[in-house]
Amino acid sequence: MKGERILLTGASGFVGRHLLHDLITRGYQVRTAGRGTAPAIPGIEHAAIGDLGAPIDWQPLLDGVNHVVHSAGLAHADGGIPEERYQQVNAQATLALARAAQAAGIRRFVFLSSIRAQSGPISGKPLSEADTPAPTDAYGRSKLAAERGLAGLDLDWVALRPVLVYGPGVKANMAALLKLARLPVPLPLGGLAAKRSLLAIENLTDAVGFALTQACPTRRSYIVSDPEPLSVADMLAAMRAGLGRGPGLIPIPSALLALAARLAGRSAAYERLANGLVASPAALIKAGWRPPAETKTALARLAASRADVG
After folding, report:
1. Which domains does the chain have, with CATH numbers?
2. Beta-bridge partners for 165
3. In terms of pTM, does the model score above 0.90?
C-alpha cells in the first residue's frame, strides 16, 4: 500500500472529499481528476478534466497509477435530467475510464455505484446482491449499466452500492433530517417505525479501502451499509442524544401524517420517510470487511459536531 498511487475522481464532492483524506491516511499517493479546482492539500496532484460526458484522454492520468477509485458521476435528482445524460456520464464515461485502466494494466478499479442500481427508493423486503436488480429511475439504470459494462472487461473491478450516506458535509435528505433533530420542539414523527439502512461516511471510506486490498474478492458488486437499520424515529432520537436531549417524539398516526404531507405537497418525501429500505452488507462482511462506526454513535457525533454544511 505505502507508495502505491491511486487516481481518484470526484474528490471535490461530499463522498470524494472524505475518500481523499482517508486514502492519504492509509498511505496511498493520490492523483485527483475532476471538474473542480485542486484539493487544498499539499502534494496532491490534480488534473482538470472538464465534463465527464465529453471524450477524455485518460492515459496520461493513469501513468504510474496502481489503482482507480471512480466516485465522480451525475448525482440522483428528481426529474429534469434526460436518461441519455445519466447514461452518458454514469455509464459510458465510467466504461471509458475502465477500458483505459485495463489498457494501462491497473490492478484494481473501484466504482462507486449506488443501491439505486438494485432498487427503487423503498423496498418491501430486505435487499441482497442475490436479488435481481430492479432500478426504478434513470440514475439507477445508468449505475447498473456501468456495473454490467465492467463485467465485460478483463479488469479486476469492485462495484460498491452504498445506501444513504451521512457524515460531516452531508446535504439533501439527511441534512434536512438533521435540521429537524436540532429543532427545540417535539416532533410528530414517533410513529415512523419502518427500518432504513444508512451508511456512515467513515464506513464507506473504510469499505473502499477494503475493496482496494487483495483480501476483497473482485469482479462483483457489493451492498455497503451500516449493519443495523434504523427507523426515522430511531435516527432522530440518536441525533438528539448527541445534543444531550431526549427524543421528544410524538407518535402521531401515519394516516394523519400522510394527509398533512399531501396537503403540503410533500407526499413523495413522506413516502420515503414512512417506508423502509433495508439492504444487507452481509456479503462484504463475509469477505472480511469490518465497519468501524456504529450507526447511533455516528449519528449522535454528527449532530453534536454541527459540521453538517459542506
Report:
1. 5-163+200-225 (3.40.50.720)
2. 199
3. yes
